[in-house]
Design brief:
Blueprint (H helix, E strand, L loop, with lengths): L1 E2 L5 H10 L4 H19 L2 E4 L1 H16 L11 E5 L26 H8 L3 E6 L33 H8 L5 E5 L6 H7 L2 E4 L20 E5 L2 H12 L29 E4 L11 H16 L3 E4 L8 H16 L18 H12 L2 H13 L5 H23 L4 E5 L14 H5 L6 H6 L2 E9 L6 E8 L4 H15 L15 E2 L1
Parallel strand pairs: 3-4, 3-5, 8-9, 8-10
Antiparallel strand pairs: 1-13, 2-4, 5-7, 6-7, 6-11, 10-12, 11-12
Helix pairs in contact: 2-3, 4-7, 5-6, 9-11, 9-12
């Protein structure tokens, strides 16, 4: 017997093509794994069994007809629940959209399906992607597979937990300020935020339109590179005005040596307040491993990075306020019953349909965009954005990639941090990357010396150097030997293939 969680995406697709097993057998194994494991992780909001079996049958029929199979044929995948998929609900983990049925399929989801992936369902998240824990979901929290008393991170916590527990091989998440990379670090998986514009945002419910980016999570850099090939296939999406033509083979140079290449470190960040000592040690060790692989470690500076949190929590709430104004209880979404006026219905529907963090961010955005305040804060934040982007440009003139933590700590217990401002600091190392529109990736490098929990190192690269960044990520993965790991409590529990 072979457990599905021991196979990579490439091995699953190759096994189906060779006739070692069928896509339908893989789909049933994945559904069995979800049945056995998700009661503990609570990663899923909806399991799309019918869609999965229909897609698997289509793959098997194509093979029987002698057709060549696409690169992700039969690979189990699931999607963050802010991504539309026909035949499923898209709730954004909010009561506001609890009954909303997807009217179409998001481009990023469709491209995974076009590559042959089998859709297993929709994954939990912080409500409307506002958070770093997945505890703000209106339906239930998600648990970290390495310790179910702890958070998986957020807002793509369901995506990270589903991959880390072996319920799916690949998942898609979205990253507005670290929402792929931070949970990837806390759950011990690989999570990539592509360059802004590299992956279409059409059909992904918007949080911060100038910051959002969809991207993949997997248990290896190779699996993430395969997903990036699918997500960028077909080039620019005319349905997303920010989409760029980034179609390329992200596998072509994955195994290239990094000898003679430059990796930057920022010494001031490694002395930052709140950075756990075991995380600092892990990042310094990762730098040593990259140096042993032949990279030159170069000290660089991002002098305005300290202002990124302040700038982000002006820019993001302003964009969230604008984007969520459409959820008014009139056209779709939660509708407050027994209202006598349209204004009353809209007001009460929003008051009762949104959770506390969604309300907090929208009210903050409304205030920041108000007359007399806009000039003081919003325009200043845009100027800081320009400075941060220029800092990165100067740094990347010296180095090919920058190494830093993905999260200041390992996963913490549910409820251990209740202050919203303290929770915002969980993204202190990731936000600047979104502000500048560059690419970033978290790679598991070790288990913490003190906690025994996963720690991810973050690599950041210039905009549209995604394939190059994956080369560095693969070199780090080779050196750290953390590839393909499933959280021990879940390994082999359900999901067997004959």
């Amino acid at each position: 017997m072979t457990s599905l969680d021991t196979l990579t995406a490439r091995q699953i697709a190759a096994g189906i093509a060779a006739g070692d097993f069928t896509a339908t057998e893989v789909a049933h194994a994945a559904l069995d794994a979800i049945s056995a494991r998700d009661a503990s992780t609570q990663a899923f909001l909806q399991v799309s069994e019918n869609l999965a079996l229909e897609a698997a049958a289509k793959t098997d029929a194509a093979r029987a007809a002698g057709e060549s199979l696409p690169p992700l044929a039969g690979v189990p995948v699931a999607f963050k629940d802010n991504m539309n998929l026909l035949g499923t609900r898209t709730t954004c983990a909010s009561r506001m959209l609890e009954t909303y049925e997807s009217a179409y399929t998001a481009t990023c989801v469709q491209r995974m399906l076009d590559a042959g992936a089998t859709p297993l369902g929709k994954l939990n998240m912080d409500e409307f992607a506002f958070g770093s824990t997945t505890d703000s979901s209106a339906f239930h929290p998600t648990n970290n597979p390495w310790d179910i008393t702890r958070v998986p991170g957020g807002s793509s916590g369901g995506s990270a937990a589903a991959v880390a527990s072996g319920q799916v091989t690949l998942a898609l998440g979205s990253d507005t300020g670290g929402s792929i990379r931070q949970p990837a670090s806390l759950c011990g998986v690989v999570g990539m935020k592509p360059s802004y514009g590299a992956v279409s945002r059409y059909g992904v419910v918007a949080f911060g339109s100038s910051l959002d980016q969809a991207g993949p999570l997997g248990r290896s850099v190779e699996d993430v590179a395969l997903a990036m090939n699918a997500l960028t296939a077909g080039g620019r999406d005319r349905l997303d005005a920010t989409s760029q033509n980034c179609a390329q083979d992200h596998l072509a140079h994955l195994e290239d040596p990094i000898e003679g290449r430059a990796v930057g470190i920022i010494p001031a960040l490694l002395e930052a307040e709140g950075l756990a000592s075991e995380v600092r040690t892990a990042i310094l060790d990762a730098a040593d491993k990259l140096a042993s692989a032949g990279a030159h470690i170069v000290e660089v500076d991002l002098p305005n990075m300290a202002s990124s949190i302040a700038a982000y929590y002006v820019l993001a709430p302003c964009e969230a306020f604008s984007n969520l104004a459409r959820f008014d209880g009139v056209r779709y979404g939660y509708q407050e019953p027994r209202c006598t006026t349209l204004a009353e219905q809209s007001s009460l529907s929003r008051a009762h349909g949104f959770g506390p963090e969604a309300k907090r961010r929208q009210m903050l955005g409304a205030y920041l965009l108000s007359s007399g305040v806009y000039e003081k804060y919003y325009l200043a934040a845009q100027k800081v954005r320009t400075l941060i982007t220029a800092d990165y440009q100067r740094a990347f003139a010296q180095v090919d990639a920058i190494l830093m933590p993905a999260s200041p700590t390992v996963a913490w217990e549910h409820g251990a941090i209740s202050d919203p401002a303290a929770l915002y600091l969980a993204d202190v190392f990731t936000i600047s990357n979104n502000i500048a529109g560059n690419c970033g990736i978290s790679v598991p490098v070790c288990l913490g010396a003190d906690s025994g929990l996963p720690i991810g190192a973050q690599l950041q690269g210039p905009a549209f150097a995604d394939a190059q960044l994956l080369t560095f990520a693969r070199a780090l993965e080779r050196a750290c030997h953390m590839e393909g790991i499933v959280a021990p409590a879940f390994a082999g529990k359900g999901g067997e293939l004959a």
